[in-house]
Specification:
By secondary structure, the protein is of the alpha+beta class. The chain has 3 helices and 17 strands.
């Protein structure tokens, strides 16, 4: 009986680990804890506002955003800040002694050795991995290149896995979004339908053409000054006239996210160990029953 109960517990553990491993990242991308290097020798980032900006912030993680982790998530290691380089050249933030803080007299997060950002690209950092920074963190986040605040943002209250992002990379307007784009573009597409009115000369027909390509020419105009015969009279059409929505529509283009291959590897290792343990237990039971 005890052996059967052990088998049931073991199988439940395998199922639980499998489900947890497959749902850890919440279906989105992640960023490495240590920023990858870039080729060449980038110049130190200049202490000039508008060159490198804070582009997106996520402070209430509810899934794994740090590629170094597998399965679990933590408020200290999965909250992130994304920077964006608006220029055509790369910059070295470490060499410029850049830092992130929450205002005057607060503790700072310093960039790791060699941290650099490519031209028109992104750099994601996890500042709460510094316990000193986390101890004095507020809703205000500043990017400082010694003694010069080059960018800052005050983050409003956010829900789980919501980010506060610029509406497009480097834009002046911000929005709260439930679809963060970590280490990727914030660009959105706006489509505005327009109406084109076409008409003809006297005695002709007219209609309205929309951007969808439809053309309405049901109504003919009689302007010859002569009352038509009764059998030539045209009655109003009962079909509804389609309306054209002239309000701009915002479409968000999803950006493909990198796949966290480390999660699958860890999952396979755990499952392999459990299968081996199950096989050994079966072999042990067989020997016990054989002696009996």
């Amino acid at each position: 009986m005890r052996v059967a109960a052990f088998f049931v517990i073991l199988l439940c553990s395998i199922s639980t680990l499998s489900v947890a491993a497959s749902s850890g990242t919440g279906g989105h991308g992640c960023a490495p804890l240590v920023p990858p290097g870039i080729p060449g020798s980038p110049a130190p980032a200049p202490a000039t506002p508008g060159i490198i900006v804070i582009n997106e912030v996520l402070l209430v993680p509810h899934s794994t955003w740090n590629c170094s982790e597998t399965g679990a998530y933590f408020s200290t290691t999965d909250a992130w800040i994304e920077l964006y380089n608006t220029q055509n050249q790369a910059f070295n933030l470490y060499a410029a002694h850049a830092l992130i803080d929450s205002g005057p007299n607060t503790n700072t997060y310093t960039f790791s050795f060699g941290a650099a950002i490519a031209a028109h690209s992104y750099l994601v950092v996890f500042p709460r991995t510094s316990s000193a920074f986390a101890s004095s963190e507020t809703a205000t986040l500043r990017l400082v290149i010694p003694n010069v605040v080059v960018d800052q943002v005050t983050v409003p209250p956010l829900g789980p896995d919501q980010s506060y992002a610029r509406t497009s990379d480097g834009a002046s307007s911000w929005e709260i979004t439930s679809t963060p784009t970590i280490d990727a573009s914030n660009t959105s597409l706006q489509v505005t339908p327009t109406a084109i009115t076409s008409s003809t000369g006297t005695g002709g027909t007219g209609g309205t053409r929309t951007t969808s390509g439809s053309f309405n020419s049901d109504h003919k105009v009689l302007i010859d000054g002569v009352q038509p015969q009764w059998n030539r009279l045209q009655f109003p059409s009962t079909a509804p006239t389609p309306s054209v929505d002239l309000h701009p529509t915002t479409l968000t283009t999803p950006t493909p996210s990198p796949v966290n291959s480390g999660l699958d590897l860890t999952r396979r290792i755990v499952l392999t160990v459990l299968v081996i343990a199950l096989a050994l237990m079966l072999f042990w039971c067989w020997k016990v029953f054989k002696k009996a």
